[in-house]
Amino acid sequence: MNLLSSLRVALIALRVNALRSALAMLGVIIGVASVIVLVSISEGTKRAVEEQIASFGANLLIIRPGSSMFGGRRGGAGTADPLTDGDVQAIRNEIAGLAGVSGEVSSASTVVFGGVNWSTRIQGVNPDYFSARGWTIADGRAFSGAEETSGRRYALVGQTIITELFDGADPLGQSIRIGGQPFEVIGTLARKGETSWGQDQDDVIFAPLNTVRQRFGAGIQVTRRDAVQTVYADIAPGESTSRVIADIQDLLRIRREIAPGAEDDFNVGSLAEFIRARNETESQLGLLLAVGAGIVLLVGGIGIMNIMLVSVTERTREIGLRLAVGAKRRDVRNQFLIESIVLCLIGGLAGLVAGVGGTLVYAEVGQLEIVIDPMIVGIAIGASAMVGVFFGLYPAHRASRLDPIEALRFE
Amino acid sequence: MSGLIECRDLVKTYTMGDQTVRALDGVSLDIAPGDYVAIMGASGSGKSTLMNLMGALDRPTSGSLRIAGEELAGLDADRLAAFRNRTIGFVFQQFNLLPRTSALENAALPLVYAGVAPAERRQRALARLEQVGLGERTDHHPSQLSGGQQQRVAIARALVNDPKILLADEPTGALDSQTSDDIMGIFDTLNREGITIILVTHEQEVADHARRQIVFRDGQILEDRS
């Protein structure tokens, strides 16, 4: 008996008991639909996380001073001695596998252009900063290392500044006043958008680190003339994050004269790892949901097995007749197996439609990012076919082991 | 020996609880090609057991059973199925047609398992349905046919694979006397055309259509008259 005739027989058998077939499928439909909703949402979350990481700089390390000790009393974060230009230099020169290193100091200030003023963040950085943090120069240029060291009053502005201060006009070459001092705009930055916690990343002005430290020293609250608040180190592609972290820790312990066995008074953290770690919890939740979907599929499969067993019993005489006129055991087994698979596949396709629909509704209502991957078609077909085979095998086997004489006599 | 069916010391025992029942107790019997045989006997006489063995639906406990030159005693289930498919045509008392399946598809069913292509299946089933006088209603389902018409479909199905032997188990048992006569008329014609027919029946009237009558009692042949 070939596949096509088996398929026809299966479809006829299922149509005869259309309602029963539909009810039997329900478990598979719900199971497949929930798997698809799950996959789409977790893929969406994963993409959102990766986008977030990319917008920070994919392989970025953040180095900050830690807490200080005053005779057994620990200060808060950042109370230890600040990091310095010297540390930035040392990390840049001595640590292998870094694409760029930059210090950062930050100050809040008022910016004035023409008759307009705007309060924003002024960040003093080294030229490496832009590539390390994933900023693109949209227009103009960044400042050079020499311009940074000599304290030139150059500024690069974010897109929000262009909108608020320049009313969308071209700011290049314009002179703006930051905290009462004139700066020349030499570049603009491409839009980055909001962070996941709603901070506008484009509401920012960058200037050479030394300039910001000299001109706005009071606003920065640093204890040394060469201090930086944060050091960013961009790990080159293919380098081991943990190795680079360890190297930096070793270097800074020596530079900061920390006794062996004493705790670090600084932190080296990976933002990407922090974000990924935060999403670990979410993926554990996803795992739980996946187990739930698996259970629904399992229950659906048991429903399929049940209905197939009923079908085999009901059609005992038919099986007897088929055996009498020459069906081999495998013909009978395949007939019922195909029926079970067809039942599950129809359920799987219905589940696919329901799952995609559910995902779209979820995205609309929850305002969440989703990814509807073409792969889910494969998941739907694969999962339902597997359920069909697994739970159809026993009833089909039972049908194929029937004795033709007994089966023909069955009432 | 040139019998189409050759039985030698056939024994079939069943175990029921702790009791062993000898349903067939050393039966030896030859049936020649083209013969028309009625097997009779009360229920429990062993006639159905012999029928099941000759139909290759079951295997003997001991003894030898050769049909069309092939020894059936040692064949496994799938080989028996293949043997039935090409050698035996069955007609049952309860017709055993597939519900919600057309007369044509019912008649063609053995060809499905013989691996015959759909176009040829259709053609051969149509020819057999015409042969039994049912050329008109080939797309009707069994529920739309009378008992006599259903049994005609069943006979067409039994014939569709050009079997050597037609085995009919109480073929008129579910039919009224007029329809019974029509069906027996079909069997008579088929036998005249050369096919070997074995009827299992308890009705003398039906058995009288056969040339040879074998009566069973207690698993043995009581009488064998031609």
Structure commentary:
The complex is a heterodimer of chains A (411) and B (226). Chain A is of the alpha+beta class and 411 residues long. Chain A has 2 domains: 3-52 and 277-409, no CATH class; 81-264, no CATH class. Chain A has helices spanning 3-16, 18-56, 85-94, 129-132, 145-149, 159-166, 209-215, 217-220, 241-255, 271-314, 316-324, 329-366, 375-400, 404-409; strands at residues 60-65, 69-70, 73-74, 83-84, 98-113, 116-125, 137-140, 154-157, 175-178, 181-189, 204-208, 227-228, 230-235, 266-270. In chain A, the strands form 3 sheets. Chain A has a 6-stranded mixed barrel with strand order 5-6-11-8-10-9. A two-stranded antiparallel ribbon of chain A has the order 2-3. In chain A, strand 9 (175-178) and strand 10 form a beta hairpin. The longest helix of chain A has 44 residues, at 271-314. The two termini of chain A are 26 Å apart. Chain B is of the alpha/beta class and 226 residues long. Chain B has one domain (5-225): Rossmann fold (3-Layer(aba) Sandwich), CATH 3.40.50.300. Chain B contains 7 helices and 10 strands. Chain B has helices at residues 47-54, 77-87, 103-114, 118-131, 147-159, 177-192, 204-207, and strands spanning 5-16, 19-31, 36-41, 62-67, 70-71, 88-91, 165-169, 196-200, 212-217, 220-225. A 6-stranded mixed sheet of chain B has the order 6-7-8-3-9-10, sandwiched between helices. In chain B, strands 2-1-4-5 form a 4-stranded antiparallel sheet, covered by helices on one side. In chain B, helix 3 crosses helix 4 (118-131), helix 3 runs parallel beside helix 5 and helix 5 runs parallel beside helix 6. Chain B is globular, with a radius of gyration of 17 Å. The mean pLDDT of chain B is 91. The chains are: A alpha+beta (411), B alpha/beta (226). Chains A and B meet through helix 1, helix 11, helix 12 and helix 14 of A and helix 2 and helix 3 of B.
